[in-house]
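As a point of orientation, let us examine one representative protein, giving the amino acid sequence and backbone structure tokens.
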Amino acid sequence: MVATDLDKTVIYTRSSFGHPEPETVCVEHHEGQPLSYMTVTAAKRFTALASAVALVPATTRTIEQFHRVRLPGGPWPYAVTSNGGTILRNGLPDRRWRSALEAQVRAECATLVEVRAELRARVDESWVLRLREADDLFVYLVVDPAKVPDGFLADWDAWCRPRGWSVSQQGRKIYTMPVPVCKSRAVQEVRRRMLEAGELHPEARLLAAGDGALDAELLRVADAAIRPRHGELEERNWTHPGVSVTAASGIHAADEILDYFLGVRA
């Protein structure tokens, strides 16, 4: 079973192309404009991987944002969106998973209303472009990274942690997330269901990939994993036993990641 993050792991915007520009295929349009791409090599490998393993996209994107992406090799029996807040089964949200998660968040975490109000009081339009809620679960800022005040992330995280929330910056987005909303938990639930249904061999390994701090727990629990040589984990020089790192950064890292999955699977 392979669980992989999407943005800046297997799909990329033009800012990550580098030079010379690679041959690509567009996998996402937004408001009529092309947005996200894969290299032609990565698209072929993704298709091959989807035919060989149980492949589960695992993204922080909302359901709506995930459905904009047309990954080669689909459709997907399972997908994880909203950083683990939603399990999609044949494209539809699993109500049982969401209900149980919401109960845990209510029991262990400050409310979304409280967190959003506190966050709004700490930011201003000189460096924040947008403040958004995602799937009634978490909030994120779209920022100008060069203008984020020194110490903001540390101070905001210090407020959030005792209240059961975490903070993570990935490029232009700063996520504020309830701790129970976690990709690894949702992926492990998908794995449990597939094993129970006989859709996975009992000895099937879990392989994973991701670039951000929100992916770290998923990489830790996987039997083998890989991350690209860019992103939040690279900036933190994050390592863990059993986690490989690509030689390439940017869009070409996806070629390596998918080649790694196919090689480990073989």
